[in-house]
Amino acid sequence: MRGRDVKHISLTLLASLFGGGKGSHALDETTWQAVMGLPLFDGLLAAEQVRLRELATQLLADKAFSGAGGIEVDDGMATAIAAFAVLPVLNIGYDWYEGWREIVVYPGEFIHDGEHMDEAGIVHHVRDVRSGEAMQGGPMVLSWEDVEHSGQGEGFNVVIHEFAHKLDMMNGDANGRPPLHSGMVPADWAREFQSAYDDLCRRVDGGEDTVIDPYATESPAEFFAVLSEYFFEAPELLQLGCPAVYGLLASFYRQDPLVRRRSI
Ligand SMILES: [Zn+2]
């Protein structure tokens, strides 16, 4: 399940986050080479690979990784996560990832135990299974098993998903609208994303077998995060299903994975 929430986390989990064994890691050369061979990175120019590596090295120095649930994060695991994480900021800069530090890695999906307040102000107890989680100004949690399934060019990447939430949170609660660059028109973003979101919700509600994972219909924030996964992992599917949104994501991330893929 792409069960990912962006706000709530239990005190039990918070307590476990600040256990021992966390720290910075060095880039592991063998892992780096292996990860660069994944479909996700197909078509990157040599200069882009150099920049990607510099950004990954920066992330490894900036973030503190810690293992939870009996797992220890080694340099190889941290390197793989860093490589996936920095692809979205390749052309917009590392600043977008500053202001928080902790990345917690579980061996597999983890239980989220928390509370959710509905529109009427009633607090509900929520318990579900997740593969990743990103908290505003706070830690990110990832399932290692899901990290291992990322990068295959099939539309799934838990690391890109959670970092997309972090980008979205740069201007407040995750709502599917990250801060846009100058020259981008917020009204265009709002209109095209809303229209594509409504369309996908309609199709999913109608029982249609959609190209995009139905998890994207959970909320506009999840829509942005899931579509960001497709943008990098399976750009041809996104371009086919939501061409207007593809163009806006290309403007936002300042890269065009579709052109990159076609170059190989
Ligand atoms: Zn999510």
Quickly describe the structure.
The chain is an alpha/beta fold. It is built from eleven helices and six strands.
Order of helices and strands: HHHEHEEEEEHHHHHHH
CA distance, first residue to last residue: 32 Å
Fourth-level CATH superfamily: Collagenase (Catalytic Domain)
Assigned CATH class: Alpha Beta
Topology-level CATH name:
Collagenase (Catalytic Domain)
Structural summary, described in words:
The protein is an alpha/beta fold and 264 residues long. It has a single domain (11-262), classed as Collagenase (Catalytic Domain). 45% of the residues lie in helices and 12% in strands. It contains 11 helices and 6 strands. It has helices at residues 11-17, 29-36, 46-62, 75-86, 144-148, 158-168, 186-205, 220-233, 235-241, 243-253, 257-262, and strands at residues 64-67, 102-106, 110-117, 123-130, 132-134, 140-143. The strands form 2 sheets. The protein has a 4-stranded mixed sheet. α8 packs across α9. The model is unreliable at 4-12 (pLDDT under 50). The structure holds zinc ion. The site of zinc ion has 5 residues, from α6 and α8.
List keywords for this structure.
alpha/beta, 264 residues, globular, Collagenase (Catalytic Domain), binds zinc ion, two-stranded antiparallel sheet, 4-stranded mixed sheet, 12% strand, single chain
Outline the secondary-structure elements.
Layout: H1 11-17, H2 29-36, H3 46-62, E1 64-67, H4 75-86, E2 102-106, E3 110-117, E4 123-130, E5 132-134, E6 140-143, H5 144-148, H6 158-168, H7 186-205, H8 220-233, H9 235-241, H10 243-253, H11 257-262
Parallel strand pairs: 1-2, 2-6
Antiparallel strand pairs: 3-4, 5-6
Bound molecules: zinc ion.
Residues 4, 161, 165, 222, 225 line the site of zinc ion.
